[in-house]
Design goal:
about 110 residues; mainly alpha; Serine Threonine Protein Phosphatase 5, Tetratricopeptide repeat
Length: about 110
């Protein structure tokens, strides 16, 4: 049996109620919202993730993608710049490369 988005989101919300700083669960919830097209909810979750875990580079990249899909390119560029800085802090060259390429595509 497959879990629906609502079920997965509900499960993640319940888990986060008890473990609010769990980065993986917060990222998963943000991705559930993003994949469902709920950009605002996704961005709230990405913001919470990055506030508690500022070096979670995937959060910056996926938040930037959600912003770009919504036509919010200037905000996407800002997230990418923040993500590139996080990737540099953590030595994550792959994430830095992906975010740099996206930033270039957005004209940044």
């Amino acid at each position: 049996m497959y879990l629906t988005m609502t079920t997965r989101a509900d499960m993640l919300q319940e888990f986060l109620a008890e473990n609010p700083n769990d980065a993986f669960a917060r990222y998963g919830l943000a991705m559930e919202y993003s994949n469902a097209g709920d950009t605002e909810a996704a961005l709230r979750e990405f913001a919470a993730l990055l506030s508690a875990n500022p070096d979670y580079t995937a959060g910056y990249f996926m938040a930037a993608q959600a912003l770009a899909r919504a036509g919010r390119n200037s905000e996407a560029k800002q997230r990418l710049q923040e993500g590139i800085a996080a990737a540099e802090r953590t030595g994550n060259q792959h994430a830095k490369s992906e975010m740099s390429a996206m930033l270039e595509e957005l004209g940044g």
